[in-house]
Design a protein that fits this description.
CATH class of the largest domain: Mainly Alpha
Order of helices and strands: HEHHEEEHEHHEEHHE
Distance between the termini: 32 Å
CATH topology of the largest domain: Arc Repressor Mutant, subunit A
Number of domains: 2
Helix content: 40-55%
Shape: globular
CATH architecture of the largest domain: Orthogonal Bundle
Strand content: 5-15%
Radius of gyration: 20 Å
Strand order of the largest sheet: 1-3-2
Length: 217
């Protein structure tokens, strides 16, 4: 039975909505972003599963596409691509600096290498060390580079792309990063960053942040 199969008590004066309250909360969480997780947002996930098509329809009215991966247990929205290519941009964009993107590529790589076998946990210090090869491309000294990585790490924590575990300094990588960027886009970005490394950081891309859908990532 879907949330629209029976009469609902209005939640406020003038309420004309037809979704159950849990499903409305799931819809609101998707619009707010960045994603809904079966593990971390169990009640929202159950509501989403119960009313998937109704929620998908309401998002479509806003030129938004619902992406649900039952295997990974994650759902998020992205801007719809119309045939005319003139759909309005509804979700906000989150600019990504050079270091943001390097970190994103690294974390997504960890997910891919895991083969989908269970949770992916990374150590903050280990990741910092592995990203140190990009310091010359960032055109900064060690202190400045560490400051930039700290800023990127904090940004990803706020977006729930990195989630603290019970062990100090260990974080779970959100599986949604598997879905946000396709293999072709990831390959293109990775190739560009390898080129920057080969040039020894002659030009820093930090002045040219990339945009990604904030509610996607």
């Amino acid at each position: 039975m879907t949330g629209t199969a029976h009469a609902l008590e209005p939640l406020w004066h003038g309420d004309t909505g037809s979704l159950r309250e849990p499903s409305r909360r799931a819809l609101a969480a998707l619009v707010k972003g960045p994603y809904v997780s079966a593990e971390r947002h169990a009640e929202l996930w159950r509501a989403l599963v119960a009313d998937t098509e109704e929620i998908r329809s309401r998002l479509a009215d806003l030129f938004l596409d619902l992406v649900v991966d039952d295997t990974l247990g994650v759902a998020f929205i992205r801007g719809a691509q119309t045939e005319a290519g003139n759909a309005p941009q509804v979700v906000r964009t989150l600019p990504l600096t050079f270091i943001d993107t390097v970190l994103l590529l690294h974390l997504r790589g960890e997910l891919v290498r895991s083969g989908g076998a269970g949770r992916v946990i990374v150590g903050k210090d280990e990741v910092y060390e592995q990203l140190s090869v990009y310091r010359s491309a960032a055109s900064t000294d060690e202190a400045g580079f560490t400051k930039r990585i700290n800023a990127s790490w904090t940004k990803f924590e706020k977006q729930n792309l990195l989630v603290k575990t019970s062990t100090d300094g260990r974080f779970e990588v959100s599986p949604v990063l598997r879905l946000v960027f396709g293999p072709e886009e990831i390959a293109a970005v990775a190739a560009e960053y390898k080129r920057l490394l080969a040039r020894g950081g002659a030009a820093t891309p930090d002045n040219e942040p990339r945009d990604t859908d904030e509610d996607d990532a």
